[in-house]
Amino acid sequence: MRSLAVLHASELVTLAGSKRPRVGRELSELAIIRDGGMLIRDGKIEKVGPSDEIEKNGGDSEIVDARGRVVMPGFIDAHTHLLFAGNRLDDFERRAQGETYEQIAKAGGGIWSTVGTTRAASESDLLTQAKEHANWFLRCGTTTVEVKSGYGLTVEDELKILRVMCLLKKEVPLEIVPTFLGAHAVPREFSPDEYLEVVVNQMLPRVTAENLAEFCDVFCERGYFDIDQSRRLLSAAKKLGLRLRGHVDQLTNSGGAKLMAELGASTADHLEQANEQGIEALKKANVQPVLLPGSVYALGSSRYPRAREMIESGLSVVLATDFNPGSSPTPSMPMVLSLACTQMKMSPAEAITASTVNAAHSLNRADKIGSLEPGKLANFVIFECEDYRELAYWFGMPQTHAVYVRGARDWL
Ligand SMILES: [Zn+2]
How far is the CA of 61 from the CAs of 7, 64, 203, 211, 283, in angstroms? Predict the structure, then answer.
């Protein structure tokens, strides 16, 4: 297979360093090489260093001149709901006019409208829309996404969504990590306990038998699934070999962070309402918090998660988009970096670590992606800027120049 020599990056942001999830001051250490280069062979990174060294070892490699541009690992978006049909434009307009969630739901909006359109969509229609979404992510510089099911909420519809994820994996360069979120909401015809039985006894065994997901997630929130129900589901999923993630402490502090710590989950996501005890519990159990400022912004709220306290407590923070049609319609990690810096007072370097190498750890893939180091996959992005801080600074303007997945240029 062909080899590539990427040369003369104004900053080669390698994120080389500790093999553990980065915490504290490590979050600020990007291991930048100025006038940096990389040698890539068979889709993997072979050598990283100063450009002149790479050039000497380049042989007859194809040259990629990155002069005047930042080169860094592709973003890893560890929390998305990429797979759904339709959109929520009417909800968006109603919200802008001041209507409440309850009013919107009464008028047929909210998650149920997306569940309806997703159930009605054929596999091929779902796949077509998912491919379009996948291209949006690549254009923003994301090369890996975690994708949750959860807009089917019947056995067959949840399986349909997870199967479309498998098809999507084969058809787009974007790398997909599947998560089963059958417990995203409670269908109207069930009580929460009745529906939980369906999820645990009917969905989970089929999802694992068909090997359709790596993670199991739950929406642990008042009016959805409480702590005991969430514990029952996640414990069953763990026994079947799935790793755990959870939507917790988003609208109310229900002790969701503590539950994720008790269960040894990979991540606790959202955490807008998490308190000190929750943060302490996550720290003790080495659970990574996944912060989703895009959803806080898009809902017009100002209650962002307490990123600084989490970093100071030694948590290995992750940032993600929460891409979904209702509360966070953005595939853009650069937008999330902007929000992390302006609203949560993270530094640009901390935000980049949280959306690359730490995100890779949260998806159990840090041996393959998340930094530019020999042996890892050549998933990287060239941005139209000279200084990595520009990615978080200019907002609302795409700066992506080129995206490479496994050494192949996939967009532009
Ligand atoms: Zn979510």
Answer: 11, 9, 49, 39, 45
- 181 CA to middle of ligand 1, Å? 9
* pTM more than 0.90: yes
pLDDT (tens digit, 9 = 90+) per residue, 179-209? 999 999 999 899 999 999 999 999 999 999 9
Ligand 1 centroid–CA 80 distance in Å is 6
- Residue 244's CB is within 10 A of a number of other CB atoms, namely 24
* Best CA proximity match to 12, nearest among 63, 58, 77, 68: 68
* Ligand 1 center from residue 295 Cα (angstroms): 9
- List Cβ neighbours of 259 (8 Å cut-off, separation of 6 or more): 220, 227, 230, 231, 234, 246, 248
Query: For residue 400, which of 380, 381, 379 has the smallest C-alpha distance?
Result: 381
Span from the CA of 242 to the centroid of ligand 1 (angstroms): 18
- C-alpha of residue 217 to centroid of ligand 1, in Å: 9
What residues pair up with 37 in beta bridges, in sequence order?
49
Reported as a single tens digit per residue, the pLDDT across 70-85 is 999 999 999 999 999 9
- Ligand 1 midpoint to CA 3 (Å): 39
**Distance between CA atoms of 76 and 308, rounded to whole angstroms?**
21
